[in-house]
Amino acid sequence: MTHVHDATAARRLVVLLAAVLLTMLTLAPPAMAHGGEQSDEASVLVRQAIALIVSSPDDLGEIREKVEAAREAPDTTGVDLALVEQADAALTDGEDLAQVRALLERSIGAGAVTAPAPDEPEPGSATTPAATEGAGEPTGDMATGAEPGTTVIAEPLETRPRLDATDWLVLAGSILAGLAGVWLSLQYRPAREVTR
Amino acid sequence: MTRPDNSSSPAAATETGRPGRGLLTAVDERLGLSALQYPVPEHANTLGWSLGGLTAASLVVLIATGLVLTQFFNPTPNMANPSVRTITTEVPLGGFVRGMHFWSAQAMYVLVILHLLRVFLTGSYKRPREANWLVGVGMFALVIGAIFTGTVIKWDQEGFEALAHNLEIANLLGGLGAWFSADFAQNLPIIVRLYVAHVAIIPGLILALLAVHFLLIKRHGISAEPATGATGPTAPFTHHLRRLAGLALIVVGVLGMLGVLLPPPIGPTPVDGIEITRPLWMFWWLFTLENWWGIPAILWGSVALFGLLAAVPFVDRRRARHWRERPVAVTAAAIVLLTMVGLTITMMLTSAVEHL
């Protein structure tokens, strides 16, 4: 008898949970699918163009599209459009992408990233003020919500190993640990594996 | 009647003949370690039945390396990416520790899947172990959550795009997704909350479920051989632990080698509004679904997978445990697995696509 009650109660609980879930999903606003809207802020579009140069430099069409969108954006706050136009011209002339990037960075006040003065710290490093605070923006601003929090686009850090003495030591230790593990697991394998 | 207190007596050492033994006896008297010598079936010492223990070993590596990383990682939007670079390039052995952390997360993901497959194929989730299967499925979900949050908090373009997907799915979930949305705590960067989830909430939940998992294994015992249904010869649990220690050392050794030879990269600092990266390979099957049907497919794909996993012990209730005697269940599982592999391979062959 108790089992029957339990089963009924469990079924009701499942139905109730399903109903709550469905209601919440039904009331949810639709999520964006393929193809979001282009930003109307030139500074955002310039940053996107720089990010494309950093991450996918072969995608020239996409880079050009972002630069042109930045030129035509209704909100040009914080952007030197003359420099964006120079970058656009450099792109059209087939100039080096590093130069295009430098122009774009200067247009949003982040020019030190690709062309550091000799006494400036390495761009993108942990101690670089530009990398930590966001060049061209007031210092001390803390990003909130899902804001990226940086205006500087640091290069990806490739970590291809150039092994130094410590690395070799760690590697040797790892190999020894692995070999010790093989020996131990063979030593303590169950009798039926030994029989096989 | 009280037991004689011989704790400080040298008799203990003399009795056993070796001072080391005496120490062991003394420790055992206080901690009751000999209770671990309870018998378990000998087949528990095979590789297949040690996969759960190896998953736990990966968790230990993850926690140990994670503790080191937390000393140097700065979980704020402005500093997260640079601090990962500092760990990699300036902290002594930082790159190695991060590499171990990265690879042990992937090892844990693979091992937990292999463990689930072993439990499925040997029918070890069947009565009375249904609850423990659900606990295991819960831990699998948490492992994925840990990998996801770990990806986001390094705060490079890849992580930021993963976050953007997370936010869209949170919108899709409505009230259920409130915590995952940036609006939940508007004055706080979401990376801080994801960091707390990564280092405290998720590991805490995993450890809590792991304790329940172990208790239930102790309660129900190791499941018998599926072919015979008999427990067979037994061996002390301590023998299982020492065999596991050997296998775990192999895992640690391989992770160490990968940490040195294939250190994980760190991508560029993130920019909003573009999609130019691919997610980690564990999420590729979901992203193929997204390419076909949009962002809601990520949600429905995940719900379908975990719904199926949770339903397993309630659908397959026959007593037969050997995989040959369960053609329907095994075929269904093979279809699900092959579908996921097929979707993953499809993602390998396509380039990054804009969804947001």
Low-confidence stretches of chain A: 24-35, 111-140
Order of H and E elements of chain A: HHHHHHHH
Major sheet summary line of chain A: none
**What is the chains' assembly state?**
heterodimer
Query: What overall geometry of chain A do the principal axes of the alpha carbons give?
Result: flat
Query: What is the strand content of chain A?
Result: under 5%
Main structural class of chain B: mainly alpha
Strand segment count of chain A: 0
What distance lies between the first and last C-alpha atoms of chain B, to the nearest angstrom?
75 Å
Helix content of chain A: 55-70%
Written description of the protein model:
The complex is a heterodimer of chains A (196) and B (356). By secondary structure, chain A is mainly α. In chain A, α2 packs antiparallel against α3. The two termini of chain A are 52 Å apart. In chain A, 31% of the residues are buried. About 21% of the residues of chain A have low confidence. Chain B is an all-alpha fold and 356 residues long. Helices cover 63% and strands 2% of the residues of chain B. Chain B is built from twelve helices and two strands; from the N terminus they run ααβααααααβαααα. In chain B, strands 1-2 form a two-stranded antiparallel sheet. Chains A and B meet through α1, α2, α6, α7 and α8 of A and α4, α7 and α9 of B.
Concise summary:
The complex is a heterodimer of chains A (196) and B (356). Chain A is mostly helical and 196 residues long.
Question: What tags apply to this protein structure?
Answer:
heterodimer; A: 196 residues; mainly alpha; 8 helices; B: mainly alpha; two-stranded antiparallel ribbon; 12 helices; globular; disordered N terminus
Please write out the topology:
The complex is a heterodimer of chains A (196) and B (356).
Chain A: H1 2-27, H2 42-55, H3 60-72, H4 81-92, H5 97-107, H6 129-134, H7 165-187, H8 191-195
Helix pairs in contact in A: 2-3, 2-5, 3-4, 4-5
Chain B: H1 11-16, H2 19-31, E1 39-41, H3 51-70, H4 80-89, H5 94-121, H6 130-153, H7 157-173, H8 190-220, E2 234-236, H9 237-261, H10 284-293, H11 296-315, H12 327-348
Antiparallel strand pairs in B: 1-2
Helix pairs in contact in B: 3-5, 3-9, 4-5, 5-6, 5-9, 6-7, 6-8, 6-11, 10-11, 10-12
